[in-house]
Structures are given as structure tokens and as C-alpha cells.
Design brief:
With 170 residues, the protein is mainly α. It has helices at 3-24, 28-48, 52-76, 87-112, 127-137, 140-169. 79% of the residues lie in helices and 0% in strands.
Length: 170
């Protein structure tokens, strides 16, 4: 077993555990901690794939910005932290575990029978430059549309938050 394989197993287990914990934990702050662990472990997987730029973007955008935006969104809205116990909850947990196991088995089977073909030789050379050239030449329109959509979502969130404040203040 190589060190790269052990690092992959460790990061994959942390990512899966973070995802499962995020779905099963009841407190919102604990959900965010699990989500951050998942995002950071995925960035580690990108490093193992020699995609350092994508790993840095993963840490900056997802672990930083998206998590903080979600945290502010939940902190600024009212929500009920109530635990649902009973037969439905137990069945839901078993059904979720079964679905996760089935999904894992299907993914394992798909990866086990996957053939990648030949080894890519120029994949790791100047990957940040290759991403920049592709982003600002071939994918310029989708990049700009994404920025406009994010701006509209931000303005919409501000309008909704202001409207809710005015209703509470009246």
C-alpha cells in the first residue's frame, strides 16, 4: 500500500463521514462543521489528483465563502430546532443507510470495471494557465452569466431579508 493510497482512503472516509454527519446531526452549527470537513477533504483529493488550482479554489470558495453565506442565511432567518423521534425516524435512518450502501456498491462496481485507456502525458504541465486560457476564451459567456446569476441571487436575498424585517417591525 502506497502513501498516496492511504491518503486517498483517509480523505475519502472524512468526506463521506462529513456528508453523513451533516445529514444526521440536528444542530445547525454542527452541520456546518461537518460540511467544512467534507469540503476540505475534497480539496485534499484534488491535491492528490495534481489539481492544485482547483484545490485552492475549493478551499477559498466552498470552505470559505459558500459556508459563510449559508451560515449567515440560517442565522438571519428563524428556524425551529426540533427533534422528530418515533417510528418514522427509525425507518428513515435505516432506509437512508440502505440507500447509501446501495449507492456505494453501484459506484464501486462502476469504478471497478472502468477502463481509463492510456496515460495522459501533458496533464500536469501549467494546469493553472490551461484553466485560465480555457475560462477566458472558450467559456467566457458561461462565466459571465454565472456572475450575473450570483449577483441576482444576492440582490434577491437582500430584498427577501428586508421584507421579512419590515414584517417583524410592523
Amino acid at each position: 500500500m502506497s502513501g498516496e493510497y492511504l491518503a486517498f482512503l483517509g480523505l475519502a472516509l472524512v468526506a463521506i463521514a462529513g456528508g453523513v454527519l451533516m445529514l444526521n446531526v440536528t444542530k445547525v452549527m454542527h452541520m456546518f462543521v461537518a460540511l467544512v470537513f467534507t469540503f476540505i477533504s475534497i480539496a485534499g483529493l484534488y491535491v492528490l489528483l495534481s489539481a492544485e488550482f482547483v484545490a485552492a479554489v475549493q478551499v477559498l470558495i466552498y470552505s470559505g465563502a459558500i459556508t459563510i453565506i449559508m451560515l449567515f442565511g440560517i442565522m438571519l432567518t428563524r428556524h425551529q430546532d426540533e427533534e422528530k423521534e418515533g417510528a418514522k425516524s427509525a425507518w428513515r435512518k435505516w432506509l437512508t443507510a440502505l440507500a447509501v450502501f446501495a449507492f456505494g456498491a453501484v459506484v464501486y462496481r462502476g469504478i471497478y470495471h472502468l477502463d481509463f485507456g492510456g496515460q495522459a502525458t501533458h496533464l500536469h504541465e501549467k494546469n493553472t494557465e490551461q484553466i485560465g486560457v480555457a475560462l477566458y476564451s472558450k467559456y467566457m459567456i458561461p462565466f459571465e452569466i454565472t456572475s450575473v446569476i450570483l449577483l441576482v441571487a444576492l440582490v434577491g436575498a437582500i430584498v427577501l431579508a428586508k421584507k421579512e424585517d419590515e414584517e417583524v417591525g410592523s
